[in-house]
Records
---
Amino acid sequence: RARSRGLLLCPGVGFDVVPTDCLAALLKRELPEAQSLELAFDAGGGPSRGTALTAVEGLAAGGRIRQNGQLRRVPLAWQQREVAFQDGPRCVVSIPWGDVYTAHLSTGIADVVVYMAMPPKAIARLRRLRPLRWLLGSAPAQWWLKRSVRQRVSGPDEARRSSSRSQVWGEVRSADGRSVSGRLVTPNGYELTAESAVRIAERVLRGGAREGGYCTPSQLMGADFVRSLDGVQVLI
């Protein structure tokens, strides 16, 4: 419908999902036969209050991965592993991040899992919530959890945003066991979002984009778009 009306739909034009989407596309370019993709990020500086509130709303839904091309529901904090970010290894846990949907469209890869850096103790606490999934989505539980977020989370201020950086890791693997991995180091996620969203909007307003329909950031701007953003390092 959007295409027929000349409307362009490109969600995820910030830290979710520009760096991860572009990294996925870059890795697929390096290994065209890739059949599986894993992505992970460490968002330095901590979440804003709005991000934390959105995470609370999603607790009851559990996790999501893409398997054999289809979105699949999995338990909260389903997989845990260690990832080698640019500044060293870190524990990460699977989350229902936007790339579970978009990376498949950008790369055609059928199996996608996305992880976020998290201390093992915090992962264990999330897993203890699994039996309470039915309760987490209830109005009383949501009210209590959101009140806690509003009281405890204020989000990174300007000083913290300017002094913190985010990191992204990705790996693609083919059926015969070959793999290619890559890493990004970016400014704080909120700083990157401000630049990438404006840059994409400018591109569309200049008429340098497809006429309509749905696309991911890397489909619209190209896989190398992330290289053009201020302060981004790409290591593949």
---
Amino acid sequence: MSSKTDNIPKRDLISRINFLLQAGMLINRNCPPSLLPLSSLYVREAKSCAQKSLVKIDRSIKRIVCKNCNCYLIAGYTARTRVKTRRGTYFIVTCNICSHVKKAKRKVI
């Protein structure tokens, strides 16, 4: 009998994408800034692997990665976060490496 975990299609690709994203995050947090290009290389490789194999990357991971330079957006280190209130509340995240701006509308609780 096969269990539910054995029936996952493209299991090896999903595990490779997961490994590359975790390695990129680990390098980004624990290593000197000179290794940031290596972190973005891992993220870029994971994105291209997911795109070629038609595997979707989780939305929460897409939110913390810069679309321009593929660097992890860590507040105070590689990103600057601002909150604007015009016709709603917006979070504005600016990448410190490439100055790319990401805006997201949020509900106020």
---
Amino acid sequence: MTEPGSDAWPPDPIGTARLVLRASEARDRAAFIELFASPEVGAHIGGARPRDVLERSVPEVPGRRWGFFVVELDGAMIGTITLDHRAAELADHLRPDAGETELGYLFLPEAWGFGYAAEACVAA
């Protein structure tokens, strides 16, 4: 993967057998709020966020940055994939002499258990 800013972002959508990875759009805002307000998701990311706070703070088009994909199934957002560069000085860096990319994902609970995360991570 190249450095942030060296590639045009967002890239063209990436399709898999069932999913589309694409840039976020205004139509995804409600799903972002649902994702971060979910107690099930919150259990893995330090706690769910209050819905009223999210309603006020989530931008009209959330997640517009390098390395960020919305995961779409049948025209609706079901999760996100992120690619981030890790600084060499961070703990648990596997190769301090080389850059590493960290892959992260979050999915709505109703999308759990279908292999969507694995499929989306391979595509990203």
